[in-house]
Design goal:
The complex is a heterodimer. Chain A folds into two domains: about 35 residues, no CATH class; about 55 residues. Helices cover about 45% and strands about 25% of the residues of chain A. Chain A has three helices and four strands; from the N terminus they run αααββββ. In chain A, the strands form two sheets. Chain A has a two-stranded antiparallel sheet. In chain A, a hairpin with a 2-residue loop joins strand 2 and strand 3. Chain A is globular and about 50 Å long. The relative contact order of chain A is 0.13. By secondary structure, chain B is of the alpha/beta class. Chain B has a single domain, classed as Rossmann fold (3-Layer(aba) Sandwich). Helices cover about 40% and strands about 15% of the residues of chain B. Chain B contains 13 helices and eight strands. In chain B, strands 3-4-2-5-1-6-7-8 form an eight-stranded mixed beta sheet, with helices on both faces. In chain B, strand 6, helix 7 and strand 7 form a beta-alpha-beta unit. In chain B, helix 1 packs across helix 12 and helix 5 runs parallel beside helix 6. Chain B starts with a strand and ends with a helix. The relative contact order of chain B is 0.18. Classes of the chains: A alpha+beta, B alpha/beta. Chains A and B meet through helix 2 of A and helix 7 and helix 9 of B. Bound molecules: adenosine-5'-diphosphate and magnesium ion. Magnesium ion binds next to helix 1 of chain B.
Chain lengths: ~90, ~270
């Protein structure tokens, strides 16, 4: 609930607000059939794949499911530390 | 021009499918349309009691599909309103007694004679639901402003779109404006925001529904309650009339309840 508190500027969110944000979260996962566990796997695989090419900041990586209407979108924001030195 | 087939479904049980089917059918008939309401909830027959026609049943939908009676024999004519008919579900059978194609065939036989065919869907997303949506030209999804009901509605919206039967229309039932005002119930805007489908209408929580269901007289036939008005508006929209969404404004809360809210929140 900490995140919710932050979202609503420190005050205790109303049950209506809590219901809406819980719904939005559960629906986005329902719609694409990706559980939080599967999302974590996906994130791990992304890290290992991308790390083959560039050095990334795995801690600062953000992978999110967002939606616009009924259109779902998977976005990854991956900070790059440096390009891997090219192998000879 | 044949009938428009409208299926009322929800995913979750107990959110108002049968109540809406009964009242919208009656309201459309009161507006001069020829209407038949079909109970597709095989094994859990209910539309008959909500419409108050339970004493008139001889044959049912499964009898028609199995060929043990003619379609005309299963049509019960409502004596209170001109042009209103009902086909009951079988009570001692289950959903597997009917296939989607049977529903399409029954509706195709009825289409030339009626303006509207309303189908009361069972809860769930299994075969009973598939049967109910198979013949639909339009699908209305009914939900209450609660997390679980909206979640199930979203599942159904997705299935309907996948079947190429979208876009679904939303009926929001049992809204309690006072709870919304004090921040304790999802509002229409919230539900529309998460479901992202078009709104067909809002029906408030109303004791008149329970009273009329007790009597077996759909609320639109009897009185001018807010719920009755809401169902009449939805019926008009289904007929293509441009009726604004009803304002469910409440008298502004007294200073006492304002203080009660402040106390509750902090
Ligand atoms: N707007 C409303 N206000 C008050 N009670 C309602 C309303 N809509 C439905 N109900 C009640 O809720 C219960 C479930 O409704 P029903 O139409 O049988 O749901 P479903 O067919 O989806 O299972 C019934 O007891 C009904 O009287
Ligand atoms: Mg029902």
């Amino acid at each position: 609930m900490n995140l919710l508190n932050q979202l609503f500027g420190g005050r205790r969110p109303t049950s209506r607000e809590v219901a809406k944000s819980r719904l939005q979260l559960v629906l986005v996962h329902d719609r694409v059939d990706l559980s939080p566990q599967k999302m974590q796997l996906l994130k791990d695989e992304l890290i290992s794949t991308i790390s083959k090419y560039v050095e990334i900041d795995a801690e600062g990586m953000q992978v999110n499911l967002t939606q616009n209407g009924r259109q779902c979108r998977l976005t990854a924001d991956i900070p790059i530390l440096s390009a891997r030195p090219k192998r000879q | 021009m044949g009938a428009t087939v409208i299926t009322i479904t929800s995913g979750k049980g107990g959110v108002g499918k049968t109540t809406a089917t009964a009242n919208l059918s009656a309201a459309l008939a009161m507006k001069g349309k020829k209407v038949v309401a079909i109970d597709a909830d095989i094994g859990l027959r209910n539309l008959d009691v909500v419409m108050g026609l339970e004493n008139r049943i001889v044959y049912d939908l499964v009898n028609v599909v199995e060929g043990s009676c003619r379609l005309r024999q299963a049509l019960i004519k409502d004596k209170r309103i001109e042009n209103l008919y009902m086909i009951p579900a079988a009570q001692s059978r289950d959903k597997s007694a009917i296939r989607p194609q049977d529903m399409i065939d029954v509706c195709d036989q009825l289409r030339p004679e009626f303006d509207f065919i309303l189908i009361d869907s069972p809860a769930g997303i299994e075969q009973g639901f598939r049967n109910a949506i198979a013949p639909a030209d339009r699908i209305c999804i009914i939900t209450t402003p609660e997390v679980s009901a909206v979640r199930d509605a979203d599942r159904v919206v997705g299935l309907i779109e996948a079947e190429g039967k979208g876009p679904a229309l939303l009926i929001l039932n049992r809204l309690r404006p006072r709870m919304v005002q004090r921040g304790d119930m999802l509002d229409t805007a919230d539900v529309l925001d998460v479901l992202a489908i078009d709104l067909l209408g809002i029906v408030p929580e109303d004791e008149a529904i329970i009273v009329s269901t007790n009597r077996g007289i759909p609320v639109v036939m009897e009185n001018t309650s807010r719920a009755a008005q809401a169902f009449c508006n939805i019926a008009a929209r289904l007929m293509g009339e441009d009726v604004p969404i009803m304002e469910l404004e409440e008298p502004s809360p007294s200073w006492l309840s304002k203080i009660a809210n402040l106390v509750r929140r902090h």
